[in-house]
Amino acid sequence: MSRSVYTVNEAAELCRLHPRTIVRKIREGEIKAHKIGRQYRMSHEDLETFMGVLPDKGFASETSGAGPVLVSSVVDMDGISREESQRITNTLMAAMNSEHSSSSRVDFLYYEELRRLKIVINSDLERTSRILKVLEVFAQH
């Protein structure tokens, strides 16, 4: 699928994102797009810029079929109060929102009766490492 201009649905398929996510990224200025009537159009180059693809390499799905290497990690933090869990959750969410990454996800579960915060991380190697370092700081206090 090597075209010069894409619709929102085509871009979503190519980027492996939901069309609503593509529209949100356009509105937030992360994807450069042109509005034609009530629809957006994006150039191939602008999508490559958004996805962080080198111009001479193309999209991973067009070349090798392989995507980024993702790491899944589960962290259990025991002895955490509800307030501490909210502080940790807010800090990690702020860190996640400050960086662009369409392939990262962090989920949180707090078990009140166990005073346990479970954090599920699914991200690339570098970002997972940074998240774990932030958690290490909280664990030391």
Describe the structure.
The chain has 141 residues and is of the alpha+beta class. The protein is built from six helices and six strands; from the N terminus they run βααββααβαββα. It has helices at 8-15, 19-27, 44-51, 60-63, 82-98, 125-140, and strands spanning 5-6, 34-36, 39-43, 70-78, 105-111, 116-124. A three-stranded antiparallel β-sheet has the order 1-3-2. Strands 4-6-5 form a three-stranded antiparallel β-sheet, with helices on one face. A hairpin with a 2-residue loop joins strand 2 (34-36) and strand 3 (39-43). The chain is elongated and about 55 Å long. The chain starts with a strand and ends with a helix. Residues 54-58 have low confidence and may be disordered.
Descriptors:
3-stranded antiparallel β-sheet; alpha+beta; 141 residues; 6 helices; 44% helix; single chain; elongated
Secondary structure elements and pairings:
Layout: E1 5-6, H1 8-15, H2 19-27, E2 34-36, E3 39-43, H3 44-51, H4 60-63, E4 70-78, H5 82-98, E5 105-111, E6 116-124, H6 125-140
Antiparallel strand pairs: 1-3, 2-3, 4-6, 5-6
Helix pairs in contact: 1-2
Give a brief outline of the structure.
With about 140 residues, the protein is an alpha+beta fold. The chain contains 6 helices and 6 strands; from the N terminus they run E-H-H-E-E-H-H-E-H-E-E-H.
